[in-house]
Amino acid sequence: MRVVVAQQPGGPEVLQVVERELRAPGPHEVQVRLEAIGINPIDRAIREGRYPASFPWVPGVDGAGEVTAIGSAVERVKVGDRVYVSGGGTYAEAVTTAEENVWPLPPSFSFEQGAAIGVPYVTALRALWRAQVAPGDWVLVHGASGGVGTAAIQLGTAMGLRVAGTASSDAGRSYVLGQGAVAAFGHEAYDAMRTLAQDGFAAILEMRGTENLARDLEVVRRFGTVVVIGASGPTSVPLGALMAQSAAVVGISGATVDRAERMRLHTALGGLLRVGAITPVVAATYRLEEAGAAQEALARGGVLGKLVLIP
Question: Which residues of the chain have pLDDT under 70?
Fold first, then answer.
Protein backbone atom coordinates (compact mmCIF):
# COMPACT_ATOMS: atom_id res chain seq x y z
CA MET A 1 0.00 0.00 0.00
CA ARG A 2 1.01 3.65 -0.35
CA VAL A 3 1.70 5.52 2.86
CA VAL A 4 3.04 8.98 3.76
CA VAL A 5 6.19 8.82 5.88
CA ALA A 6 8.44 11.46 7.42
CA GLN A 7 11.94 10.16 8.13
CA GLN A 8 12.75 13.16 10.35
CA PRO A 9 11.12 16.41 11.48
CA GLY A 10 11.08 19.29 9.04
CA GLY A 11 9.09 21.18 6.43
CA PRO A 12 6.41 19.81 4.12
CA GLU A 13 9.08 18.27 1.89
CA VAL A 14 9.86 15.59 4.51
CA LEU A 15 6.50 13.96 3.81
CA GLN A 16 7.11 11.31 1.17
CA VAL A 17 4.78 8.67 -0.28
CA VAL A 18 6.34 5.20 -0.11
CA GLU A 19 5.21 1.59 -0.48
CA ARG A 20 4.76 -0.36 2.73
CA GLU A 21 3.23 -3.73 3.53
CA LEU A 22 0.01 -3.63 5.53
CA ARG A 23 0.15 -5.92 8.53
CA ALA A 24 -2.67 -8.32 9.34
CA PRO A 25 -4.89 -7.42 12.30
CA GLY A 26 -4.24 -8.90 15.72
CA PRO A 27 -7.09 -10.37 17.81
CA HIS A 28 -8.47 -6.96 18.88
CA GLU A 29 -7.60 -5.05 15.71
CA VAL A 30 -9.42 -3.96 12.56
CA GLN A 31 -8.06 -3.39 9.06
CA VAL A 32 -9.64 -0.53 7.14
CA ARG A 33 -9.23 0.48 3.49
CA LEU A 34 -9.20 4.26 3.75
CA GLU A 35 -11.21 6.31 1.27
CA ALA A 36 -10.52 9.66 2.96
CA ILE A 37 -8.10 11.04 5.58
CA GLY A 38 -8.62 14.03 7.87
CA ILE A 39 -5.92 16.69 8.27
CA ASN A 40 -5.47 18.27 11.70
CA PRO A 41 -3.16 21.04 12.99
CA ILE A 42 -1.42 18.52 15.27
CA ASP A 43 -0.16 16.68 12.16
CA ARG A 44 1.89 19.69 11.10
CA ALA A 45 3.04 20.43 14.64
CA ILE A 46 4.45 16.92 15.03
CA ARG A 47 6.02 17.06 11.57
CA GLU A 48 7.85 20.24 12.55
CA GLY A 49 9.15 18.68 15.77
CA ARG A 50 7.02 20.79 18.12
CA TYR A 51 5.50 17.67 19.69
CA PRO A 52 7.28 14.40 20.46
CA ALA A 53 7.06 11.52 18.00
CA SER A 54 9.13 8.53 16.99
CA PHE A 55 10.57 8.84 13.48
CA PRO A 56 10.14 7.44 10.86
CA TRP A 57 6.60 8.62 11.45
CA VAL A 58 3.29 8.18 9.62
CA PRO A 59 1.05 11.22 10.22
CA GLY A 60 -2.67 11.25 10.74
CA VAL A 61 -5.30 10.45 13.33
CA ASP A 62 -8.55 10.62 11.36
CA GLY A 63 -9.89 8.69 8.40
CA ALA A 64 -12.86 6.81 6.97
CA GLY A 65 -13.34 3.79 4.79
CA GLU A 66 -14.43 0.15 4.70
CA VAL A 67 -13.46 -2.71 6.99
CA THR A 68 -11.48 -5.33 5.06
CA ALA A 69 -10.38 -7.68 7.87
CA ILE A 70 -10.96 -8.13 11.59
CA GLY A 71 -9.20 -9.91 14.43
CA SER A 72 -10.63 -13.00 16.11
CA ALA A 73 -11.84 -11.05 19.19
CA VAL A 74 -13.43 -8.08 17.40
CA GLU A 75 -17.13 -7.67 18.23
CA ARG A 76 -18.36 -4.21 17.18
CA VAL A 77 -17.67 -4.23 13.43
CA LYS A 78 -17.55 -6.75 10.58
CA VAL A 79 -15.93 -6.95 7.14
CA GLY A 80 -17.67 -4.61 4.72
CA ASP A 81 -18.81 -2.08 7.34
CA ARG A 82 -18.45 1.63 6.61
CA VAL A 83 -16.50 3.21 9.47
CA TYR A 84 -14.63 6.26 10.58
CA VAL A 85 -11.23 5.89 12.24
CA SER A 86 -9.91 7.90 15.16
CA GLY A 87 -6.41 6.51 15.74
CA GLY A 88 -2.83 6.88 14.58
CA GLY A 89 -1.12 6.55 11.20
CA THR A 90 -3.97 7.33 8.81
CA TYR A 91 -2.03 9.08 6.02
CA ALA A 92 -2.18 5.87 4.00
CA GLU A 93 -4.32 3.79 1.67
CA ALA A 94 -5.18 1.46 4.57
CA VAL A 95 -4.59 1.10 8.29
CA THR A 96 -4.61 -1.64 10.89
CA THR A 97 -5.70 -0.25 14.23
CA ALA A 98 -7.31 -1.16 17.55
CA GLU A 99 -11.05 -1.89 17.51
CA GLU A 100 -11.62 0.99 19.94
CA ASN A 101 -10.40 3.39 17.21
CA VAL A 102 -13.05 2.30 14.68
CA TRP A 103 -16.66 3.52 14.75
CA PRO A 104 -19.70 3.06 12.48
CA LEU A 105 -20.26 5.64 9.75
CA PRO A 106 -23.95 5.98 8.83
CA PRO A 107 -24.71 5.61 5.10
CA SER A 108 -25.99 9.19 4.90
CA PHE A 109 -22.43 10.48 5.34
CA SER A 110 -19.69 10.41 2.72
CA PHE A 111 -16.26 9.01 3.52
CA GLU A 112 -14.90 12.55 3.24
CA GLN A 113 -17.31 13.65 5.97
CA GLY A 114 -16.37 10.59 8.01
CA ALA A 115 -12.72 11.63 7.89
CA ALA A 116 -13.74 14.99 9.39
CA ILE A 117 -15.32 13.53 12.54
CA GLY A 118 -12.59 12.29 14.89
CA VAL A 119 -10.38 15.03 16.31
CA PRO A 120 -12.72 18.00 15.67
CA TYR A 121 -15.88 16.52 17.14
CA VAL A 122 -14.18 14.70 20.01
CA THR A 123 -12.33 17.89 20.95
CA ALA A 124 -15.42 20.09 20.77
CA LEU A 125 -17.64 17.68 22.69
CA ARG A 126 -15.01 17.17 25.35
CA ALA A 127 -14.66 20.95 25.74
CA LEU A 128 -18.41 21.42 26.17
CA TRP A 129 -18.57 18.61 28.71
CA ARG A 130 -15.59 20.08 30.54
CA ALA A 131 -17.36 23.44 30.79
CA GLN A 132 -20.46 21.77 32.29
CA VAL A 133 -22.87 23.87 30.26
CA ALA A 134 -26.65 23.49 30.37
CA PRO A 135 -29.42 24.11 27.79
CA GLY A 136 -30.02 27.81 27.31
CA ASP A 137 -26.49 28.83 28.29
CA TRP A 138 -24.56 31.24 26.10
CA VAL A 139 -21.38 29.78 24.60
CA LEU A 140 -18.76 31.66 22.58
CA VAL A 141 -16.58 29.78 20.11
CA HIS A 142 -13.45 31.79 19.30
CA GLY A 143 -12.15 30.73 15.88
CA ALA A 144 -15.42 29.10 14.88
CA SER A 145 -14.93 28.58 11.14
CA GLY A 146 -12.43 25.70 11.27
CA GLY A 147 -12.93 22.01 11.95
CA VAL A 148 -13.22 22.19 15.75
CA GLY A 149 -15.23 25.41 15.59
CA THR A 150 -17.70 23.90 13.14
CA ALA A 151 -18.10 20.89 15.43
CA ALA A 152 -18.57 23.10 18.49
CA ILE A 153 -21.35 25.13 16.87
CA GLN A 154 -23.21 22.03 15.69
CA LEU A 155 -22.79 20.16 18.98
CA GLY A 156 -23.72 23.19 21.06
CA THR A 157 -26.87 23.75 19.00
CA ALA A 158 -27.80 20.08 19.36
CA MET A 159 -27.37 20.45 23.15
CA GLY A 160 -29.76 23.39 23.30
CA LEU A 161 -27.06 26.02 23.85
CA ARG A 162 -27.07 29.53 22.44
CA VAL A 163 -23.85 29.61 20.44
CA ALA A 164 -22.01 32.63 19.05
CA GLY A 165 -18.78 32.42 17.09
CA THR A 166 -15.93 34.52 15.78
CA ALA A 167 -14.15 34.48 12.44
CA SER A 168 -11.67 36.78 10.73
CA SER A 169 -13.55 37.42 7.48
CA ASP A 170 -17.05 38.18 6.22
CA ALA A 171 -17.06 34.80 4.50
CA GLY A 172 -16.04 33.12 7.73
CA ARG A 173 -18.74 34.87 9.73
CA SER A 174 -21.36 33.96 7.14
CA TYR A 175 -20.19 30.36 7.37
CA VAL A 176 -20.44 30.42 11.19
CA LEU A 177 -24.06 31.58 10.96
CA GLY A 178 -24.75 28.87 8.41
CA GLN A 179 -23.61 26.22 10.88
CA GLY A 180 -26.26 27.30 13.38
CA ALA A 181 -24.66 30.07 15.43
CA VAL A 182 -27.07 32.80 16.54
CA ALA A 183 -24.41 35.50 16.06
CA ALA A 184 -21.00 35.90 14.46
CA PHE A 185 -18.34 38.50 15.26
CA GLY A 186 -14.85 39.54 14.35
CA HIS A 187 -12.24 38.34 16.82
CA GLU A 188 -11.96 41.76 18.51
CA ALA A 189 -15.66 42.66 18.73
CA TYR A 190 -15.89 42.34 22.50
CA ASP A 191 -18.38 45.21 22.92
CA ALA A 192 -20.83 43.42 20.62
CA MET A 193 -20.23 40.14 22.49
CA ARG A 194 -21.10 41.85 25.79
CA THR A 195 -24.26 43.30 24.27
CA LEU A 196 -25.36 39.87 23.06
CA ALA A 197 -24.71 37.92 26.28
CA GLN A 198 -25.34 40.59 28.89
CA ASP A 199 -24.63 38.31 31.84
CA GLY A 200 -21.59 36.87 30.06
CA PHE A 201 -20.85 33.56 28.38
CA ALA A 202 -21.14 30.40 30.45
CA ALA A 203 -18.32 28.93 28.38
CA ILE A 204 -15.78 30.22 25.89
CA LEU A 205 -14.12 27.66 23.64
CA GLU A 206 -10.83 29.26 22.72
CA MET A 207 -8.81 28.24 19.64
CA ARG A 208 -6.69 31.41 19.89
CA GLY A 209 -5.67 31.39 23.53
CA THR A 210 -2.47 33.38 23.12
CA GLU A 211 -4.28 36.28 21.45
CA ASN A 212 -7.62 36.23 23.26
CA LEU A 213 -7.38 34.79 26.76
CA ALA A 214 -6.98 38.04 28.68
CA ARG A 215 -9.98 39.65 26.99
CA ASP A 216 -12.08 36.48 27.28
CA LEU A 217 -12.25 37.22 30.99
CA GLU A 218 -14.12 40.44 30.13
CA VAL A 219 -17.04 38.49 28.66
CA VAL A 220 -17.14 35.22 30.59
CA ARG A 221 -19.96 35.13 33.12
CA ARG A 222 -19.51 34.69 36.85
CA PHE A 223 -18.48 31.08 37.57
CA GLY A 224 -18.03 30.56 33.83
CA THR A 225 -15.27 28.58 32.12
CA VAL A 226 -12.77 29.38 29.38
CA VAL A 227 -11.64 26.15 27.71
CA VAL A 228 -8.34 26.62 25.88
CA ILE A 229 -8.18 24.32 22.84
CA GLY A 230 -5.48 26.08 20.83
CA ALA A 231 -2.64 28.54 21.47
CA SER A 232 0.40 29.70 19.54
CA GLY A 233 2.63 30.58 22.50
CA PRO A 234 2.73 31.93 26.06
CA THR A 235 0.33 34.57 27.32
CA SER A 236 -0.52 36.34 30.57
CA VAL A 237 -3.72 35.99 32.59
CA PRO A 238 -5.14 39.01 34.47
CA LEU A 239 -5.68 37.28 37.79
CA GLY A 240 -7.81 40.11 39.15
CA ALA A 241 -10.37 39.63 36.37
CA LEU A 242 -10.25 35.85 36.85
CA MET A 243 -10.94 36.16 40.56
CA ALA A 244 -13.58 38.86 40.12
CA GLN A 245 -15.68 36.47 38.04
CA SER A 246 -14.79 33.37 40.07
CA ALA A 247 -14.11 31.97 36.61
CA ALA A 248 -12.03 28.99 35.55
CA VAL A 249 -9.50 28.64 32.76
CA VAL A 250 -8.85 25.04 31.74
CA GLY A 251 -6.95 23.41 28.91
CA ILE A 252 -7.70 20.22 27.04
CA SER A 253 -5.45 17.94 25.00
CA GLY A 254 -6.11 14.75 23.12
CA ALA A 255 -3.12 13.23 24.87
CA THR A 256 -5.06 13.14 28.15
CA VAL A 257 -8.11 11.21 26.89
CA ASP A 258 -8.22 7.75 28.45
CA ARG A 259 -9.97 4.72 26.97
CA ALA A 260 -13.15 5.06 29.04
CA GLU A 261 -13.61 8.71 28.08
CA ARG A 262 -12.92 7.94 24.40
CA MET A 263 -15.65 5.31 24.45
CA ARG A 264 -18.13 7.76 26.01
CA LEU A 265 -17.27 10.48 23.52
CA HIS A 266 -17.56 8.33 20.40
CA THR A 267 -20.72 6.64 21.66
CA ALA A 268 -22.32 10.05 22.12
CA LEU A 269 -21.16 11.19 18.68
CA GLY A 270 -22.55 8.02 17.14
CA GLY A 271 -26.00 8.83 18.49
CA LEU A 272 -25.84 12.35 17.10
CA LEU A 273 -24.66 11.11 13.70
CA ARG A 274 -27.50 8.60 13.46
CA VAL A 275 -30.14 11.29 13.94
CA GLY A 276 -28.39 13.84 11.71
CA ALA A 277 -27.77 16.34 14.50
CA ILE A 278 -24.19 16.95 13.32
CA THR A 279 -22.89 17.26 9.75
CA PRO A 280 -19.13 17.49 9.11
CA VAL A 281 -18.17 20.04 6.47
CA VAL A 282 -15.36 19.36 3.99
CA ALA A 283 -13.76 22.51 2.62
CA ALA A 284 -11.41 20.92 0.07
CA THR A 285 -9.71 17.65 -0.84
CA TYR A 286 -6.08 16.89 -1.74
CA ARG A 287 -4.26 13.87 -3.15
CA LEU A 288 -2.08 11.77 -0.84
CA GLU A 289 1.00 13.17 -2.58
CA GLU A 290 -0.14 16.67 -1.62
CA ALA A 291 -0.14 16.00 2.13
CA GLY A 292 2.51 18.62 2.86
CA ALA A 293 0.76 21.26 0.77
CA ALA A 294 -2.53 20.49 2.50
CA GLN A 295 -0.98 20.91 5.95
CA GLU A 296 0.47 24.28 4.92
CA ALA A 297 -2.89 25.39 3.51
CA LEU A 298 -4.54 24.60 6.83
CA ALA A 299 -1.85 26.53 8.72
CA ARG A 300 -2.38 29.65 6.58
CA GLY A 301 -5.93 29.90 7.86
CA GLY A 302 -9.16 30.85 6.17
CA VAL A 303 -10.29 27.24 5.76
CA LEU A 304 -14.04 26.95 6.28
CA GLY A 305 -14.48 23.45 7.64
CA LYS A 306 -12.09 20.54 7.19
CA LEU A 307 -9.34 19.60 4.71
CA VAL A 308 -9.24 15.97 3.60
CA LEU A 309 -6.78 13.75 1.72
CA ILE A 310 -7.99 11.23 -0.86
CA PRO A 311 -5.60 8.24 -1.12
Answer: none
